[in-house]
Design goal:
By secondary structure, the protein is mostly helical. It is 79% helix and 0% strand. The radius of gyration is 15 Å and the shape is globular.
Length: 133
């Protein structure tokens, strides 16, 4: 169990780094090129694809043939992502809670919800796609 948790956290940290890189690319390249109205949803979709690719590449490291393993990994990634978004956003970045909640506002083009759902289902879907379960 400890090994599964450590592997889950290690891979999630890679996802976190990729999310930060994705946000930097959005701000430095996409937004100036296509405007924030298109850059924000594009960035959310790109991050979701990155999450699925990382899950697909890394699921063999879990070494399991049980669905519950990959469901647990997805739940862990989901929880870590939510905790990071809220706790880091508020206590480290100093954002007010209402501003943090705005990442869930799809009507403003923010597709963070899609990326969040990707963290939840990507391990299980990837394990299925690779024939591990």
């Amino acid at each position: 169990m400890t090994s599964l948790l450590l592997k889950s956290i290690a891979i999630w940290l890679v996802i976190l780094v990729m999310a930060i890189v994705n946000a930097a690319i959005r701000e430095k390249l996409l937004t100036p090129a296509i405007g924030s109205g298109l850059a924000l949803p594009a960035s959310g979709l790109i991050l979701s694809v990155i999450i699925f690719l990382l899950a697909y590449i890394t699921v063999p490291f879990f070494g399991s043939t049980e669905s519950k393993t990959y469901i647990a990994v997805g739940i862990a990634w989901f929880a870590l992502t939510l905790c990071f978004e809220f706790l880091f956003g508020h206590f480290i970045a100093g954002k007010p809670w209402l501003e943090i909640v705005e990442v869930f506002n799809v009507t403003k083009g923010n597709l963070f919800v899609v990326a969040l759902l990707a963290t939840l289902v990507a391990p299980w879907l990837s394990a299925n796609a690779r024939g591990l379960i």
